[in-house]
């Protein structure tokens, strides 16, 4: 796409969903560093997400996490989101923080534990009904640590059975997004370790089941853009969990560690129709901000995704196709690199200006005084954190 007005239109319509847990205190297993002004409840998490949307204009959806965002009244939470110009995005289920799930949740050998896990997933669908959320996000920590610990194929049978029950419960406009992850917390055999396993289960389940690609969940060197191209071609890419990794599931800001990889991913998204509304790809962030201020970090993550998208959209498609047809390897690669090496910040500043926003959302937020305001107002109560 080289027509600038079409590029701008695509950038204006891209929606990036931010995670409620990205606004709370988080850390590693060594230490959680508390920050002043962090939300004390899900309502305040929404207020922080609204700040990101106010300054970027492209982040009107917020993923919730159950139980961390469990409230008495989901209608009130949804109403608050609407007042803030937001809507509720994916409901993230959690079957990984209960003692009963030590040996697994939906793949646990004991049917009573499997029942408890499936009941939680069904509760998440009830919350989707109450909040208007379109997506149930499933990530399972299930797996084994030692050879022989459990029957690998048997665990797949139990997983398939649980997924089928939850799939049946989905409404017409609701989807199930199945996420995979190579390892951690299980170190020998994870039950949904890769896109192939997730894809095979989703294919059996039906059209409402799609795969989530979390960019931090692969072995080093994995060609993630290939996975993206394949899943889009099959109509099975449901969403991204964007974040950056240097080593494993680092959950750092999207585009921070490897902006070139994010560009290559967005190129495959763009050429395979993933920016078209009908493909319904949900561009989510799944990040934790352990040592940096949270709202500014989410703003930067959103703009990093936008920059990668803008560069991908600027690729000269006809020059690329001509080079590919003629087998001119260096010219084809050159077309891609020209786009990647373009400074798209002025273009995005123009896009924002046309939307009535400040040209630099990061600077505008810092100048707004919100950070100081929440630090002085949000005192007392329990500061919400990862897992709180
Ligand atoms: C876990 O590693 C996954 O990335 C999940 O997406 C998880 O549900 C999310 O990080 C919130 O806990
Ligand atoms: Zn994730
Ligand atoms: Zn993860």
Automatic annotation (TrEMBL):
Assigned keywords, A-Z: Isomerase, Manganese, Metal-binding
Stored SUPFAM superfamilies: Xylose isomerase-like
Organism encoding this protein: Streptomyces argenteolus
Keyword Metal-binding: yes
Gene Ontology molecular-function annotations: L-rhamnose isomerase activity
The protein, known as: L-rhamnose isomerase
Domain Xylose isomerase-like TIM barrel: 71-273
Pfam families cross-referenced by the UniProt entry: AP_endonuc_2 (PF01261)
Domain of life: Bacteria
Class in the EC hierarchy, top level: isomerase
Alphabetized Gene3D superfamilies for the sequence: Divalent-metal-dependent TIM barrel enzymes
EC number: 5.3.1.14
Chain segments annotated as coiled-coil in the UniProt record: none
